[in-house]
Structure formats: structure tokens, C-alpha cells
């Protein structure tokens, strides 16, 4: 699938078929995620791959009952590593760059999944401490930024409306 097609066909999928994601596809998503740009190429994030059903149920609870997380056979959890970024960039790295690194990586994963015929849905509404507990990273210094369920779509959501470019873009001369 070409890049433009992947971007235009990506949707937030909240229903998944009960079919596993092939290891080759999962590996390809992770390889492409690893190519995401990051501040100073520090790659100040970690990705947790959650396939265990009990853990996915716990993640759904941590995400305030977003039960579609349990339907997806894989949930990728993107965590910022603030201290890694702070080691070079100080407070701005800690508070901003590490979050940007994790979100860019998640975006790459989401588009890679789409290009491979899979669905995903960015989940940002969750209790960070609960997610840390589920992952066993309470003392790690990592900060959960996004949950990304990945699987074969069990629905085909309609495109959502977008603003006109004139409403979004300001040219500065």
C-alpha cells in the first residue's frame, strides 16, 4: 500500500476479528516503528507488546472500560523515557521531547498496521499508574503515552470530517 493510501484509509477501529496477527506482520510494524524520528536520535521511548488476554483485560480497565482493547489480539503500549531524553536536553527533553518521540513512534506503528491490512485505534484515555502496574514498570521512570490495539478490523468505520485547509493552515510571510 502506498503511503498516501495508508494515510487516507486509516480509521479508528474499535471492533476486531478473533484472528491473531501473524508474527511477520507484528515484526514489520515494530521494525517500521523503530524507524521513527526522535529528538537527537535518542529514541527515548519503549514499546510493550501485550498479547496476554488477562493483561489486555486489565489494560481495558485502566482505559476506563474501553473494552475493544480486549478484542484486539495485540495491544502496543508506547511509553516515554523522560530521563533518557533529559540526559541530553534537560527539562525540555523530560517534559516534551520524550513525549514527542513516543507519539511519533505510535503514529508510525498505526500507519504500518494500516498498510498491512490491520486496524488500530489510538487510545490516550487511561490511568497512567494502572497501566504501569499492568506492565510491571511502576519504578522504571517510564511514562505510558498511548495504547494501540492492533488486529484485523471487525468493522469498517466511515471517514470522519476534516477541517478545510484554510481553517488549519496559516502561512507566515
Percentage beta strand: 5-15%
Biggest sheet details: 4 strands, antiparallel
Gross CATH architecture: 3-Layer(aba) Sandwich
The CATH topology name reads: NADH Oxidase
The spatial strand order of the largest sheet comes to 1-2-4-3
Structural class: alpha+beta
- Report Rg: 17 Å
Mean pLDDT: 97
Distance linking N and C termini = 37 Å
Shape: globular
Q: What is the CATH H-level superfamily?
A: NADH Oxidase
Order of helices and strands: HHEHHEHEHEH
The tally of strands reads 4
| CATH class category | Alpha Beta
Percent of residues in helices: 40-55%
Runs with pLDDT <50, length 5+? none
Overall structural domain count: 1
Question: Number of helix segments?
Answer: 7
Word description of this protein:
With 173 residues, the chain is α+β, with helices and mostly antiparallel strands. It is built from seven helices and four strands. A four-stranded antiparallel sheet has the order 1-2-4-3. Helix 2 (23-33) crosses helix 5 (82-115) and helix 3 (53-62) packs antiparallel against helix 6. The chain starts with a helix and ends in a 5-residue tail after the last helix. The mean pLDDT is 97.
Write the layout of secondary structure elements.
Blueprint: H1 3-9, H2 23-33, E1 45-50, H3 53-62, H4 68-71, E2 74-80, H5 82-115, E3 119-120, H6 128-135, E4 143-151, H7 165-168
Antiparallel strand pairs: 1-2, 2-4, 3-4
Helix pairs in contact: 1-5, 2-5, 3-6
Amino acid at each position: 500500500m502506498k503511503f498516501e493510501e495508508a494515510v487516507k484509509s486509516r480509521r479508528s477501529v474499535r471492533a476486531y476479528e478473533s484472528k491473531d496477527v501473524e508474527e511477520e506482520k507484528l515484526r514489520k510494524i515494530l521494525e517500521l516503528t523503530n524507524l521513527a524520528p526522535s529528538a537527537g536520535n535518542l529514541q527515548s521511548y519503549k514499546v510493550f507488546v501485550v498479547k496476554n488476554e488477562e493483561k489486555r483485560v486489565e489494560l481495558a480497565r485502566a482505559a476506563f472500560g474501553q473494552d475493544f482493547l480486549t478484542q484486539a489480539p495485540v495491544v502496543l503500549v508506547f511509553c516515554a523515557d523522560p530521563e533518557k531524553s533529559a540526559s541530553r536536553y534537560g527539562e525540555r527533553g523530560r517534559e516534551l521531547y520524550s513525549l514527542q518521540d513516543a507519539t511519533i513512534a505510535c503514529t508510525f506503528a498505526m500507519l504500518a498496521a494500516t498498510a498491512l491490512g490491520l486496524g488500530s485505534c489510538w487510545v490516550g484515555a487511561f490511568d497512567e499508574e494502572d497501566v504501569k502496574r499492568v506492565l510491571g514498570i511502576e519504578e522504571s521512570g517510564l511514562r505510558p503515552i498511548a495504547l494501540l490495539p492492533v488486529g484485523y478490523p471487525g468493522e469498517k468505520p466511515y471517514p470522519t470530517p476534516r477541517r478545510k485547509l484554510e481553517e488549519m493552515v496559516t502561512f507566515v510571510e
